[in-house]
Amino acid sequence: GENVEQHPSTLSVQEGDSAVIKCTYSDSASNYFPWYKQELGKRPQLIIDIRSNVGEKKDQRIAVTLNKTAKHFSLHITETQPEDSAVYFCAANGGSARQLTFGSGTQLTVLP
Amino acid sequence: EAGVTQFPSHSVIEKGQTVTLRCDPISGHDNLYWYRRVMGKEIKFLLHFVKESKQDESGMPNNRFLAERTGGTYSTLKVQPAELEDSGVYFCASSQQTTGELFFGEGSRLTVL
Question: pLDDT tens digits, residue range A53-67?
Answer without folding.
Answer: 889 999 999 999 999
